[in-house]
Amino acid sequence: MSKVITMIIKRLGLGILTLLLLSLLIFLSVEALPGDLAETILGQQATPENVAAIRKELGLDLPAYTRYINWLGGILQGDFGNSLALKKPISGLIAPRLQNTLFLTLYTACIAVPLALMLGMVASLFRNSFFDRISNTTALSAISMPEFFVGYVMIYFFALSGYFPSMANINPNTPFFDKLYLCFLPAVTLTLVVTAHMMRMTRAAIINVLALPYIEMANLKGVKPRRIIVHHALPNAVAPIVNVVALNLAYLVTGVVIVEIVFVFPGLGQLMVDGVKFRDVPVVQATALIFATAYVGLNLLADIISTITNPRLMRQR
Amino acid sequence: MKPAKSSSPKTKANTKAKNTAKADAKSDDILLQMRNIHIKGKSDETWIDIINGVDLELHRGEVLGLIGESGAGKSTLGLAAMGFCRDGCKITEGSISFDGMDLMQLDKNALRELRGRRIAYVAQSAAASFNPSHKLLDQFCEAPLIHNVMSRNKASKYAVDLYNRMNLPFPDVFGLRYPHEVSGGQLQRAMTAMALSCRPDLIIFDEPTTALDVTTQIEVLAAIKDIVKEFNTAAIYISHDLAVVAQMADRIKVLLKGDEVEQAPTEVMLKSPTEDYTKSLWAVREYTRKEQPAVKNETPIISIKGVTAGYHSSVDVLRDVSFDIHKRRTVAVVGESGSGKSTTARVVTGLLPPRIGTVEYQGEALPSSYQARSREQLRHIQMIYQMADTALNPKLRIRDLIARPARMYLGLTGKALDDRVRDLLRMIEMEPDQFIDRLPSELSGGQKQRIGIARAIAAEPTMIICDEVTSALDQLVAEGILKLLDRLQSELDLSYMFITHDLATVRAIADEVVVMKDGLVVEQGIKSKMFKPPHHPYTELLLGSVPEMDPKWLDKLLDSRGKDNLGDAAIAKMNDEGIS
Amino acid sequence: SEVEAATPKQGGRLRIGITGGATSDVLDPGKILDAYMINVSMGQVRPNMTKINVDGSAGGDLAESWEPSNGAKTWKFNLRKGVEFHNGKTMDSTDVADSIRYHTIEANGSGGSGVVSGIASIKEDGKDAVIIELNEGNGDLPILLSDYHLNICPSKGDGNIDWESGIGAGAYTLEEHEPGVRTLTKKFANYYNTGNEGYFDEIETLGISDPTARLAALSTGAVDAINNVPQKTASRLKSMANVKTLISTGNKQATMPMLCDIDPYTDQNVRNAMKHIVDREELLDKIFFGYGELGNDSPVGPANYFRATTDELPQRQYDPEKAKYYLKQAGMSSLSVKFHAADTGFTGAVDAGALMRESAKAAGIDIEVVREPNDGYWSNVWMVKPWSACYWSGRPTEDWIFSQIYYSKADWNDTHWNNSGFDKLLVEARAETDEAKRRDMYVEMQRIVHTDGGLILPAFLSEIMGYRTNISVPGKIANNWELDGHLCSRRWWRA
Amino acid sequence: MAYILTLFWIIVAVLVSLAAGWCFRAALIQISGPNMAKVYRTAPLTASFGLLVIIIYILCAIFAPLIAPYGEAEILSGGFMPWSQEFWLGTDNLGRDVFSRLIYGARNTVGIAFLTTALAFIFGTIIGIYAALRGGFIDQVLSRLIDVLMAIPSLIFSLLMLTIFGTNVLTLVIVIATIDSTRVFRIARAVALNIVQLDYIEAAKLRGENTLYLIIREILPNAMAPLAAEFGLRFCFVFLMISALSFMGLGLQPPLADWGSMVRDNADLISFGDITPLIPAGAIALLTIAVNFVVDWMLHRASGLKD
Ligand SMILES: Nc1ncnc2c1ncn2[C@@H]1O[C@H](COP(=O)(O)OP(=O)(O)OP(=O)(O)O)[C@@H](O)[C@H]1O
Ligand SMILES: Nc1ncnc2c1ncn2[C@@H]1O[C@H](COP(=O)(O)OP(=O)(O)OP(=O)(O)O)[C@@H](O)[C@H]1O
Ligand SMILES: [Mg+2]
Ligand SMILES: [Mg+2]
Predict the structure, then answer these.
(1) In chain A, where are the structural domains located?
(2) Is the CB of B105 under 6 A from ligand 1?
(3) Which helix (H) or strand (E) element contains residue C368?
């Protein structure tokens, strides 16, 4: 167990380092964006005086490094700062969005992960069979369609005919089952987007293991094919599968801007894109940090899971 | 002797009658009968013959030894006895009848019922054949549970019982360990125990000790022999080591490229083999080279001085190792697995800078890391690896593989380079025109090893480190390599540091021997001296563990040493007594 | 649109799916940018002193009446009495004066500062009137005061206004507000005009930026009305069940400003050549799908009073020969230019570029269409690149649009055009009171822009909206803004 | 009834594809040397179909001007002409021939995607293998940097970069290549980690070979199979990325035809049951599937499983 703990500590340290570097990178890129919030707010009526006034008001007249350090100091005290545009604490802005995004992520994960694992296992059991090819082709077709297109197709088939709402404009107060209903189409769209990757990895990881001597041994012990897949191959294929699942979950947290737009879903991605659009640096920073934390955290979780499910790593002589 | 075409259950009595007529008194209890087996394997979309019409017959309680070089089809035949074919193989002809059942006619489920319950299998590499994710006990209980032979509780108890008999440490809790938590020898015994979990009538042992040290091998051999006798289980014992088979089998069958060469009771086979091939196998063990005369006080080519080394932050793997290698001499470094032989080689090559001590080349200290050594220094010490497969880049052609050192160190190009490559190929007895444009995957194991040698001598070195260069090869092929090395030594004035754990090889080619154990040099000296008593106890153990061609050898050894004083146990005892 | 039942019904909820919402939207009236907030703030919560009537004239809202004097330099506005804010406070002249003054203060960085730049002072005149002094006479002031920034908010008493709470005197009170996503307002019982306006119990405003999502929402009944239907899909909207289409053509215009101080557009002949290689009919047809009116390179549009007729100012046609001629005048035989566009400029701008590229070939002009990112378009491309795409929602008065964009010193002079004759006329026309003379002056100004300006204006664009049949819409709707001048929540009702 | 009909056509399409694959494989076996013929004979029908599709796409890309009946940006008629003899797939809103644009789209989309992926692989593999080879500190630093890049959602990262550096094909290619190369780095490093510990690498190091030789001659050829497989997938993801970017208004420059933007431009038609946008989307999907069929086959060959 201590091995896992040292690993976690080490990885957490690295994770924090990653986040730090990332915040710097994001800060610099947003700095490098042409124009700033002042100009954006004023839009077509930016005059130098106007712009200067707003810059001063927003603190944009301070040198970049001062702003970065102030911001970093704030973060260390648990303060994400204020949105420049809204002049309100970012935490209040982000909290409901984060809640929504997490809900959609979990919702999708609950459909996609078991589905992908199941399909992957069945495909590896009947590899190169008709079923295998069909599920593979379907999955590939699903990922090869642009996300917004899948979304539109979903709307065409399921929303316009009145089965499900085309808009998933939930908020944290929406009752749970309403949320489930409202978010059904985005969840299905995302499921189509992520399942293929996980399914193919499950299939590949299991098939990879199937060539190993201990599978032949299991065969020679008279074990049934289904049990071989589930009991003998799967536990040894956990690491690559978990990694891909983590990667996809991270994608669900971070990468669904387009689905958010199509289904009018108030999630974090939209918030960040708006932040970029209006050059609202603190908002971009905060969302980027959340995304990166999700990414780092999920990867860490994947590593922990693959460690504790692997006795060779858990119980070293 | 063609088998009866009809082999449906109805004709069982019929078949039996026939057998009775043919076979001797014991024919009643024929357990397994394979007739005219033909097996084909798919390689690159064409079907090639693996087994061409072999017959095999096994009585209850009998042990049949199956020997032959690698690729002879031993495993394939062994598996066929279970009605099993590997991926890409198929049984095209013949009949297999096990205890009156025709395995060729049974459906998948019925076969599955049979496997693990009535016929069990012990694989060559227990480490690879145990599922790393499950505890030993769970894997033990799997077969009894899926075949409904015993309850989980009973199976566990039975496991403890078997572990106890197999002399495994702490049998009560041994099964709670994961495969990686036990040593190779113990794992191999645990696998044998697992094979016995449903008390099968037949066990196929597929080279169960080939991957083990000599010291550990005895332990496993003893356990297997014991258990087979005790349960009166019939067994097919597959091996390429004649001496080992001799200990185990009642009868020996020799295979060559899918054909049966001959078959005879063990005693007969050992004393008077009839076929040439069999005789040549026997002869290999006799090859010895003349010992080179001892040198007087000249500077050694390589001198290892007080080297202590280790990996990363861990403990010292080598402790104060010192020995010299003189010109034109072969120093064999022996010792069990993990004793630090390869580590010594890594220190010499500079891959692992030592913590203390130096390596001198002709009296002059070498930089400790290879990166700091000059090209010339690198050129003088070359290395040949155990696994020719991993030592040759599979994507480079033979021409490029051999040419590279010659071009790098000697600056040869164009025609000169081509000529040199061809010379080298001729030197290792491979026809240049035939091989120069092949990829390593298009060569046999022995040929690959030769390429490794050619690559080493292309650099025109003064010393070559050979790390277990023959361990992965068949005896006949290995002998060829040893002879080649021997010849090259005298032609090119080479020195060898020859790492091995096989004492027979040492006997064959060494001038001097260094015995290592736990990172220490326990004994060193001239070969002739080393093979004569009195020995250091560890050397003695090593020497005593090499199987001999005498079928009674194992029994005698067990009598003299006792069951509890083999392999790991003996070493542990030695350590306790403070002999190092 | 058809004539609807005369007596509107009370009650029900109106759900509007609208564009232009952003997470960073604030309630500060000076920072209002786009349709979402205009509709919520001016349309539902915080009305202005004046509003634009359906017929295009200025009408009183929180101000009841007004009297200009001193050559339209001094204006007295009589406020409506007994108007109550949502917090119960009665509106008085301080609230109004502070609300207007707010935009004149530079530090507030208001987007409405341009509109109020002509105001010299604003004073309370008792509790129920304010007096506005202008720097120079302007008969359009009541219309200017209907600008969407100039919402009336309660004063804090210290000269500042309270915009943070979202309190106004409108027909609806702000209940829930998630910037850019969703806003819920409820009927305000003490609204001054209850009974005649503001029939719904609740208004739910939803920000839906994706056109397909907006259409789907309307079609599934998730919303009752949407704005900004892409012309491409308008015909399909008509075929939807239970959905009606609303079309209004106002002054919204697609423009392609050329910067007159950057070569080659410094030469009037080049500008003229460029104006002749645009096939306006084709653009209107293919880019705007016929939803709109042909433009004539003058920003005065169908909703303006003094728009020149085609007799006064003949419609410019696609004419590559003329373009060649002008090029020759400029001493060139061929020309290659870049057209910078993004769909933010106007929907279809990039495609419009592609069409012009084809039509310009005949005149030996090679147009390279550069697609710019939507993001940052207004700061990086518009008024920066020598020739770009742009749109204007239009202005209710000629003076307003001319002085905001074509006056040489205008902040938004997006053609960098400087014509002293035009500038002079602009000032004169503003003070002119004789309507006939004024008309002549404005027509002349349109001619000058048409012939000399850097403006290519291919078309005035229709607003296409859709609503479900469970909503009733008055027979005539305003065309100054989409969604009935953004007053749909006041003027529409549940069927 | 409509469903049954659809199902029928799907089955027909699948059968026709398989038949095409079969014919193509037979043709390949005929025209290639005995060595390659042996390889092709092992190809399942799906893989040979995939190969056929890829080759058709490549031909389309190379010979687009010869195949396409009209020019890429040529405006031929009024908008939205229906399918006809003259315009096989009708015209788009501007009156450009959809079929011609689809073919030119192959050139632009496939060309750019190929360029991008190739760039990503050159960066990614070399750095990845280098990290694996050097190990220790250098490996840690590189891996952390890559981690940082990977932790930023790719769409947002490209949005930022494209806004900073402007949208043109070159930046588009470089930005997507950078993002993709992080993924390639991870794989290349993982694959190389297994290779660098093999004896032949040790032997080469001991011979005194320099790093570049080790990477290019010794490691890369042995890491090719998994990398090639990844190449196939990455290649497809690049289209999707480009089309996602054009959804956000940052895609390719007009009047270049690219499938992503063609889908985007007509995407809203699907909500009225018009299948026009399905055609470029289908073109993307078909290529993705084709590439993956081939990749699957290659991986299968590499895995050593025979059933
Ligand atoms: N799955 C397979 N498909 C095709 N050919 C195979 C397969 N397995 C083994 N072969 C071939 O069959 C021959 C015999 O293999 P087998 O494993 O039985 O040899 P063996 O005598 O057990 O050798 P070793 O001592 O190396 O284990 C070899 O030439 C091998 O290449
Ligand atoms: N790269 C490594 N890192 C850490 N420990 C190592 C490494 N390589 C070997 N060791 C450890 O060093 C010890 C000596 O190993 P070495 O390889 O020298 O043994 P050997 O005598 O060559 O054994 P074998 O006969 O199995 O090849 C062993 O305990 C081994 O576990
Ligand atoms: Mg074998
Ligand atoms: Mg070793």
Answers:
(1) 95-279
(2) no
(3) strand C365-371
